[in-house]
Write a structure and sequence with these properties.
Helices cover about 85% and strands about 0% of the residues. It is mostly helical and about 475 residues long.
Length: about 475
């Protein structure tokens, strides 16, 4: 098997330092991506700083963009889980058929999304609470953003392979290329070409295309444990099925989160119409505190996935625990810094006093809720990468639709009926979700240790020396 030294290190190296080593390149790439999100928001706000609906329109489009991301995460998660487990167990046939099988799946998903989005863009944005100027801005932004879908989903296949192998440096470079292109193209298209907010959407599409081109070059010219033959006959129904078995629940998990924004947006606009813009402003900038969490989740996928392939439950448990503690420490410090600096940073993006006042009020509530939720992400990551994405889906659906949304509705329409009551209910729901997550985690690992739960593979794989 190629990259034997790296694979051996992932399977046997000290867990804490290994997680950090794998997470750092992803952290660097995500930092660049965060820089793009901040710059993108800043440029959009610069179109007219007195118009609160420009930034708000990106929040309106976010639930739809989250569907694209959910599809991408599902493909990446399915491919990464398959590759890491196959490497851990030495199943060469699965590795040999992964790329072509994932590529066909990505193209099919892209076609379905585009055929559904273009005809129904306006009614979907209306469903999400859009009207007036925020609807028109959002529609213009979305239509120019849609070409990014096939590049995003095809890139997800290659990213999943890299993540499963632990080749996070190439993942970092891919993210950086797309981000730099976006930052350069934003002012050129938005102001130089006079496209306005549409230019932000087109810049994102072009950036994703360049990132995809780099990934193709990586697999075309560099060695990998996963060979790409670029042949249709390598498409394997069992391998596609295994990607879907893990990826579909993971996509559905993210779809559920996306659909929940319909309810949250409605509740926010009912309580205070400007709250949507304030929440969008907060959530865009909060990513500076979340990127270590996402980077650690990526590293955990590699370590826990290869351990799962080797049926090493003890290492899976240790990786989950250490990833949670590291993420709590780093994200907690960043969240505190974010809240303390928010009076200054928010004013750099928005001048409307009502928007600023509301954003400053919700910041500490949302930061506390995010901090409490950190271990939840690690628990669902381990279950998904081990091939139990269905369990993550059920748990997340319960957390969102049986706890969070009902509690927020109580705060918005029954008790308090103001921004403060909604924020308090969001924090309470996060605490309840964490308690349930600990119980789910304990049952999951005890099931693996006792043999009640069995780690599965596709019917196409054969054990051997990969």
């Amino acid at each position: 098997m190629k990259n034997t030294t790296n694979t051996t290190s992932i399977r046997t190296g000290p867990v804490g330092p290994l997680l950090v080593r794998l997470a750092l390149p992803v952290l660097a790439g995500l930092t660049f991506n965060l820089l793009y999100n901040i710059v993108d928001t800043w440029f959009i706000a610069r179109i007219d700083t007195s118009d609160p609906w420009l930034v708000g329109s990106t929040g309106l489009v976010f639930p739809l963009f989250f569907i694209f991301l959910a599809s991408s995460f599902g493909i990446t998660g399915g491919v990464s889980s398959l590759v890491s487990r196959a490497i851990g167990s030495g199943r060469t046939d699965e590795l040999d058929r992964t790329a072509e099988s994932g590529g066909v799946l990505a193209l099919a998903a892209s076609a379905v999304i585009l055929l559904g989005m273009y005809p129904f863009a306006r009614p979907l944005l209306v469903l999400f609470g859009g009207s007036g100027k925020v609807l028109e801005y959002g529609l213009e932004y979305l239509l120019w953003l849609l070409p990014t879908v096939p590049f995003m989903l095809l890139s997800a296949v290659f990213t999943g392979i890299l993540q499963g192998e632990g080749r996070t440096k190439q993942m970092m470079t891919s993210m950086m290329i797309g981000t730099v292109a976006n930052i350069v193209l934003d002012p050129v298209l938005m102001f130089g070409c006079g496209m306005g907010i549409a230019g932000a959407g087109l810049a994102t599409a072009i950036g994703n295309a360049l990132s995809f081109a780099y990934l193709v070059a990586v697999f075309r010219f560099r060695k990998s444990a996963v060979a790409i033959h670029w042949k249709v006959r390598n498409v394997s129904a069992p391998v596609v099925g295994e990607i879907l078995r893990v990826g579909l629940p993971q996509s559905a998990l993210n779809y559920l989160a996306s659909v929940s924004f319909i309810f949250y947006n409605r509740m926010m606009t009912d309580v205070a119409p400007v709250m949507l813009t304030s929440f969008t402003l907060y959530s865009r900038l909060e990513q500076v505190a979340l990127i270590p969490l996402w980077a650690m989740s990526s590293a955990l996928s590699t370590v826990a996935g290869q351990a799962a392939g080797a049926h090493d439950v003890k290492r899976m448990r240790e990786a989950s625990r250490r990833a949670s503690f590291i993420s709590l420490g780093v994200c907690g410090a960043l969240l505190v810094g974010y809240v303390l600096s928010s009076p200054l940073t928010f004013r750099a993006f928005q001048s409307d006093p009502t928007v600023l006042e509301t954003a400053l009020f919700i910041a500490p509530w949302m930061a506390a809720s995010t901090f409490v939720s950190v271990p939840i992400f690690m628990i669902t990551t381990v279950m998904t990468t081990a091939g139990f994405a269905g369990r993550s889906l059920v748990f997340t659906a319960f957390r969102i639709y049986c706890v969070s949304v009902p509690l927020c509705a109580i705060g918005a329409y029954a008790i308090g009926k103001n921004i403060g009551s909604v924020m308090a209910c969001i924090l309470i729901s996060s605490v309840i979700g964490l308690c349930v997550a600990f119980a789910v985690r304990a049952r999951f690992f005890s099931g693996l240790a006792s043999g009640r739960l069995e780690i599965r593979f596709s019917r196409d794989g054969k054990v051997g020396n990969a």
